[in-house]
Amino acid sequence: MSTSGHMSHCFPFNFTRRGHMMQHRCMATASTPTPLAAAKTMFISQSTVRLPDRVFDPECSTRQVYDEGAKEVALSVLSGINSSIFAYGQTSSGKTYTMVGITEHSMAEIYAYIDQHADREFILKFSAMEIYNEAVMDLLSSDATPLRLLDDPEKGTVVEKLTEETLRDKGHLLELLAVCEAQRQIGETALNETSSRSHQILRLTVESSAKQFLGKGNSSTLQACVNFVDLAGSERASQTAASGMRLKEGSHINKSLLTLGKVIRQLSGGRNGHIPYRDSKLTRILQSSLGGNARTAIICTMSPAHCHVEQSRNTLLFANCAKNVVTNAQVNVVMSDKALVKHLQRELTRLENELKFPGSASLSTHAEVLKEKDEQIKKLEEQLKELMEEKDTVQSELENFRKVASDDHLNCLKARRWVLALSYTYDLVDQDLLIDAQPGLFPRRPSNHVFDSIDECQENLVAYPDVPDVSDEHCKEVQCVETNGLRERISQESFHAQKPETPEKERRPMMDQAEDCTDEEKRDESITKTAENAIELYACDSDPSFEIEKPNVDEEPLALKRCVVSSRDTVLARSSSCKASFMVIPNSWFDDSTSMNMTTPPSENFKFPPRRPEKVRRNLFPEKVASDAITDNSTGNAEEESAADDTSRVTEVKQQTEQNDASQPQENRAQAGTDSSTSTTFESPSRWSFDFPKKQQEIIELWHECHISIVHRTYFFLLFNGDHTDHIYMEVEHRRLSFIKSSSIADGEPNATVASSLKSLRNERDMLYRHMVRKLSGAEKESLYSKWGIDRSSKQRRLQLSRLIWTQTDMEHVRESAELVSKMVQHLERGQAIKEMFGLSFSLNLRSGRSFSWGGA
Ligand SMILES: Nc1ncnc2c1ncn2[C@@H]1O[C@H](COP(=O)(O)OP(=O)(O)OP(=O)(O)O)[C@@H](O)[C@H]1O
């Protein structure tokens, strides 16, 4: 590239077009109107690969520099992309020499391209200007008047009145180039005898259209310009020995080059802040080429002379910044009105489609949206299923309520029967005994008879006309039995003594008392007798061994006393009515709303083994039984054997009791006899702490076998935790459960009681299932699912959980179940319940406030 020998290197730096389409309104044309000036210009994005930066050695020809560093940029103009090629460097480093060669090669190739593309019509325009001492001069005009720079909103900076020649051919261009060269300010300096004293800008505008569309109104035209810029060289006055005019020129040159350096530096830093295009005419005119819609190549020239090392360094610094500048070159398409309308219509359709389907730009997006919707549908289906399950449960409950409501009358009648049983000695104790005592007074009924239906009950009432009808008010009497019956203690002797001899006229007032609910005392008196006896009978029948442990029955507290039976007490034996009184032990300590088992008639809850009352009677009244055996031959040998067994068992129990009393430490007995409050502790605390786990486990197993209410189990389990005063309650519970168990399978197979209990359990589980939603947090539920082996993805996991509660008898499961239920049941916290309610609550509780409610239910 060197011609004079003192220039050796050339650095072409290409400004690279990046980014995408920008609606850059720019017409890089002169002020002279062109045939396409009225048309609209569109900018179309085009991906362009950034050219590599190159360093050329002194021996490189200008052709090589052009080919490898400037050609692609220069020829971009044929594709509708603006381009610029700069030469930057110190004075006399070969800028002008290089740019002349680059311009010629470019022009030659442009014309060669035009020649090769006959299908397109090209229009080439040429303009030239120089900036001399900060004045813009038209190089194609003889007028030396400086031109003004105008800011056009569409075209950017425009040089006013700049001559733009439409080229006829290549020769015409060469002529104009010659004119420019002639017009340009050149001066002699110490470094260059033909030193350029101005910045020269040669501009070639190329417009091309496909010939086939020309004149049809729908053609589009590519329009772009290429600038060949030969900058004046930076110089030092000391080196150029400039003075006077040359010094002034040098000052302007340096000033404008300084601004160019600032702009390049600013642009290379990412366009942050103000870019001082307007600080010089050079940067103002080249604004679009430096940081706008153009591809740009900068050729930096340096002198190898050692004395120019500082200038060379500055040139390299400039080049280093320039290579980082990024421009936004676009393909400039000028469209006719018709073509523009067509294009805009297409664009409108596209935008409408985007509006119709927002966010659905791609198939992948569609798939994602569909997947999301599917998941939402699945969740909703799951929720719907759970809601349907809840609805079914509630419906079934509603049906139960309705049934209960419709059976209300039935229940009252059943309660009436029970009250009758309580009120009349005829049926209170054992009709067999009464009949035996006063034969003929009452018609005989099967000793173990249990009413199976209300019809039978009514028939029975008809069959016993002496028994007055009891109003529905007696339904309330049932409650009295529970609330008051246990408070009073009636002498067994007086009760027993009055019972057989009570004449009908004496019994009648008792009946009146039962009917008169306004007189509570009288009612209590008549009913509580039977209630107490019922309790005693219960204890009697459950486990004789319990009696053995009792050191002093007379001194036992009331609660205990009612659970302990002496051989004398058992004379009351059981009757169907007695059995009723504690057959209605609530299987479910449950909400009133679910207490259908509460309304279950006592006689339907449990049924005695058919032969059992007879056996008890035989044991207790062997003489009477013997006489009965004479008059009633219906009893067989088996019964006699059984009676003998029972008799021997009672005898054995008595013997054991005596032995136990004898072996009991004196101090214990003394204490038991003097301190009734502590006499409930049958065993020493140390022994009880040893026996408690065993007893507790037995009770748990009995709960399981007897299908006892979950809430009851939970309540009991949480309340009684090994304290020595718990002994009595646990003993009572144990006996109660033992009795229920033996009664429920008395016939060798489960009776209706089991089904009823199971139904109650199911209802409880349903309630648990519903309450889990509100009472348990998501984390708690998740933890339980995993702990109890429930598949967390299962749709019925909550239902499964409710079905697993209290289904095992191992202590860990029991404890977890109790904790879980306590969370869901109101008033189940420790301390809110009283232990006493477990000791003697054996009577019917139709509307008792003691029933536990579900929180929020
Ligand atoms: N590659 C080259 N081969 C041969 N001669 C060259 C070459 N480059 C430059 N010259 C000669 O060097 C001299 C200075 O070159 P040129 O005028 O191009 O420098 P310049 O950088 O334009 O100087 P200024 O900034 O002062 O205008 C000219 O006589 C030119 O012919």
Automatic annotation (TrEMBL):
<dbReference type="InterPro" id="IPR001752">
    <property type="entry name" value="Kinesin_motor_dom"/>
</dbReference>
<keyword id="KW-0067">ATP-binding</keyword>
<feature type="compositionally biased region" description="Polar residues">
    <location>
        <begin position="653"/>
        <end position="687"/>
    </location>
</feature>
<protein>
    <recommendedName>
        <fullName>Kinesin motor domain-containing protein</fullName>
    </recommendedName>
</protein>
<dbReference type="Pfam" id="PF11995">
    <property type="entry name" value="DUF3490"/>
</dbReference>
<dbReference type="InterPro" id="IPR027417">
    <property type="entry name" value="P-loop_NTPase"/>
</dbReference>
<dbReference type="InterPro" id="IPR021881">
    <property type="entry name" value="NACK_C"/>
</dbReference>
<dbReference type="InterPro" id="IPR036961">
    <property type="entry name" value="Kinesin_motor_dom_sf"/>
</dbReference>
<dbReference type="GO" id="GO:0005524">
    <property type="term" value="F:ATP binding"/>
</dbReference>
<keyword id="KW-0547">Nucleotide-binding</keyword>
<feature type="compositionally biased region" description="Polar residues">
    <location>
        <begin position="593"/>
        <end position="603"/>
    </location>
</feature>
<feature type="compositionally biased region" description="Basic and acidic residues">
    <location>
        <begin position="611"/>
        <end position="621"/>
    </location>
</feature>
<feature type="region of interest" description="Disordered">
    <location>
        <begin position="593"/>
        <end position="688"/>
    </location>
</feature>
<keyword id="KW-0505">Motor protein</keyword>
<dbReference type="InterPro" id="IPR027640">
    <property type="entry name" value="Kinesin-like_fam"/>
</dbReference>
<dbReference type="GO" id="GO:0008017">
    <property type="term" value="F:microtubule binding"/>
</dbReference>
<feature type="domain" description="Kinesin motor">
    <location>
        <begin position="1"/>
        <end position="325"/>
    </location>
</feature>
<dbReference type="GO" id="GO:0003777">
    <property type="term" value="F:microtubule motor activity"/>
</dbReference>
<feature type="binding site">
    <location>
        <begin position="89"/>
        <end position="96"/>
    </location>
    <ligand>
        <name>ATP</name>
    </ligand>
</feature>
<feature type="coiled-coil region">
    <location>
        <begin position="334"/>
        <end position="404"/>
    </location>
</feature>
<feature type="region of interest" description="Disordered">
    <location>
        <begin position="493"/>
        <end position="524"/>
    </location>
</feature>
<keyword id="KW-0175">Coiled coil</keyword>
<dbReference type="GO" id="GO:0005874">
    <property type="term" value="C:microtubule"/>
</dbReference>
<feature type="compositionally biased region" description="Basic and acidic residues">
    <location>
        <begin position="493"/>
        <end position="510"/>
    </location>
</feature>
<keyword id="KW-0493">Microtubule</keyword>
<comment type="similarity">
    <text>Belongs to the TRAFAC class myosin-kinesin ATPase superfamily. Kinesin family. KIN-7 subfamily.</text>
</comment>
<dbReference type="GO" id="GO:0007018">
    <property type="term" value="P:microtubule-based movement"/>
</dbReference>
<dbReference type="Pfam" id="PF00225">
    <property type="entry name" value="Kinesin"/>
</dbReference>
